[in-house]
Amino acid sequence: MPQQHDPFPVIAAADRCPCGTGLGFGECCGRFLSGGATAPTAQQLMRSRYTAFIVGDVAYLLATWHPSTRPAHLELDPGIAWRSLEIVRSERGGPLDREGTVEFAARYRADGERGVLHETSRFVRDDRWRYVAAIG
After folding, report:
1. Least CB-packed of 11, 46, 68, 116 within 10 Å?
2. Domain YchJ-like middle NTF2-like: where (predicted)?
3. Which helix H or strand E contains 131, and what residues bound it?
4. Residue 76, class by beta-carbon neighbours within 10 Å (0-12 exposed, 13-18 middle, 19+ buried)?
């Protein structure tokens, strides 16, 4: 089970996954956050990392961050409520690729205001897919 910390929400396996696939959490991102599987594509890693931000799973975020750019520690703001994820486009990042990019728009609410984080992220695959950095 993912490491979820107050005041972050707990998502049950049968609940719809917040990443937007329409699948249940347990069959979607939950299996990656629990350590039961690794994301086979850059887009699936992007989706699972988005979900990790929602549930406050710092350990997963750090473990899926490439060592060359990974921060020493990470603190999440529980005042940010992530509302939806839209994958704008993906390039490469498949099970046989070594690199990939995912452009996304993540909508959130913070301090009563709505916002959108629009980013193109770079991923690389060695033993598994890892987030490197935002590009552009």
Report:
1. 68
2. 41-133
3. strand 129-135
4. middle
The string of pLDDT tens digits covering residues 52-79 is 999 999 999 999 999 999 999 999 998 9
**Cβ proximity of 100 and 86 under 8 Å:** no
Domains belonging to the chain, first-starting first, are 25-135 (3.10.450.50)
Point out which residues pair with 99 in neighbouring strands.
124
d(CA 52, CA 106): 13
How would you classify the pairing of strands 113-125 and 129-135? Answer: antiparallel
Partnered with residue 133 across adjacent β-strands are 122
Query: For residue 10, how many C-alpha atoms fall within 13 Å in the half-sphere facing its CB?
Result: 6
Q: How far apart are CA 62 and CA 60, in angstroms?
A: 5
- DSSP letter, residue 35: T
Instruction: Provide the mean pLDDT of the chain.
Output: 94
* Tokens standing for residue 92: 């490469």
